[in-house]
Every structure is written in structure tokens, then in C-alpha cells.
Amino acid sequence: VVGESIMISTIFRGAVGLPRTMAIVHHTCARFAHIRANKVRPGMLLRINGKLMHVRKAQPVKPGKGGAYMQVELRDVAAGLKSVGSFRAAEKVEQVDLDHKRSMQFLYREGNTMHLMDSESYDQVELPTSALGDGQERFLQEGMPITVETFQGDPVDIKLPREAEFIVEDAQMDTAGTGSPTRIVTLEGGTELRVPAHVKAGETIIIKIDDGSYLGKR
């Protein structure tokens, strides 16, 4: 059920190559709909007490006693702060539906700032690495395709590819605390990961971006 529909301006702030008083503006229609809390999923945008909250994680919980509920991790879009909370499974929450996405390409990282380029217009923008999922900034690669969703100029959700290939620059044996031999390897860019012992320096491996798990070799 759609609660309301309003027209907003979606703006990428800090666009490279434009005067500071200018921005890249896109008009889109934001719709607000009420859904049951058990339908909440990661990546959704909710309006809670007048604030826009991006759902980072959502886990249904069925306790032995009491009713089921949805455990969520949220990020305040305006303040950038994370919080953890819960909703009763049957509770109604307000979802914001933008349907506005931009395909972009990662250029380089400067401190806590990502420099991206729009794949269609070639406009360049700067976004904070804090908008990524936990630990995902370590897997950024030059030229990596990225999908960006915004609300009134603020990045709401930044999606990296499901997986990516990395060259192993260094590998050392490490079996501590594991049931089978593993190695701690250093990937191009300096990221360290634990992988199976058969992985060697110079090989190209495939990593799952959201949790850093090893998927195989190329």
C-alpha cells in the first residue's frame, strides 16, 4: 500500500570538475509504503521517527517464548551513525522506494574518500567509504563497477560486485586455530586474508566481497 508520493531532487554533492556551488541534479519520485517488519531486507531504506535509515543487516528471530521479531542494523543516512534495533514481525514500518540507481566505476581512494566516475556521463564524484558495508573498502579495485543509490544527494546504498579477482602477492603458512592447514596471504593492495594452504604467491584467487571468503582460483 503506497502511503504517499513526493517529488525530490537527487543530488551528488562534491562532484569533481564543477564549481562548489553546483551539483549534478536528477529528479525522481520517492514513494513511501507501509510493509510488515518481517519483509525488511538489507539494502532497504526506511523512514523511522522522521529519519531516513538504511538497513545494513536484517535477521529474523524466533525465540522460544514470545513473538517473532526482526533484528536489524541501521545507518542514519543524514548522520552516518549506525544503530541496532528490532521490530515485531507483524509491526508495520515505512519503506522509501526510490528506484534510482547509477552505475559507476571506482577510480581511486584518498583516505576515507572514494573517487568514482559515472559510467554514462563520465561525471566524477566523491563518496565516503563509510557508506560501504563493513570491511568492504579493503576490496576496492581500480575500474571496479559500483552501483550507487541516493536520496536527496546522500548515498543510501553502495553495492560492490558479489565477487572479485585478486593476485596473491605473498603467502605464509599458518595453521593456528584451524582444523586444516591454511595460509595468511597478502593480496594486491595489502589486504590480508586466511585462505586454503594450497594457495600460492602469484596466483589469482576469487574472493566474495561481502564477507571476504575464499571462493576459488581463476
CATH second-level architecture of the largest domain: Roll
| Total discrete domains | 3
Estimated structural class: mainly beta
| Uncertain residue ranges | 1-29
H/E element order: EEEEEEEEEEEEEEEEE
Largest sheet features = 7 strands, antiparallel
**General shape:** flat
The total count of strands amounts to 17
Could you say what the CATH topology of the largest domain is called? SH3 type barrels
* The level-1 CATH class of the largest domain: Mainly Beta
Distance between the termini: 46 Å
The fraction of residues in strands falls at: over 45%
Rg of Cα set: 20 Å
Strand order in space, largest sheet: 1-2-7-3-4-5-6
Helices, by number, come to: 0
Mean pLDDT, rounded to whole units?
Answer: 80
Helicity, as a percent range? under 10%
Written account of the structure:
This protein folds into 3 domains: 31-97, Roll (SH3 type barrels), CATH 2.30.30.30; 100-159, Nucleic acid-binding proteins (OB fold (Dihydrolipoamide Acetyltransferase, E2P), Beta Barrel); 163-217, Beta Barrel (OB fold (Dihydrolipoamide Acetyltransferase, E2P)). Helices cover 0% and strands 58% of the residues. It has strands at residues 2-12, 24-36, 45-48, 51-61, 69-76, 82-88, 92-97, 101-110, 113-118, 124-128, 145-151, 154-159, 163-174, 182-187, 192-196, 204-208, 214-217. The strands form 3 sheets. The protein has a 7-stranded antiparallel sheet with strand order 1-2-7-3-4-5-6, with no helix packed on it. The protein has a 5-stranded antiparallel sheet with strand order 10-9-8-11-12, with no helix packed on it. Strands 15-14-13-16-17 form a 5-stranded antiparallel sheet, with no helix packed on it. One of its GO terms (molecular function) is translation elongation factor activity. Belongs to the elongation factor P family.
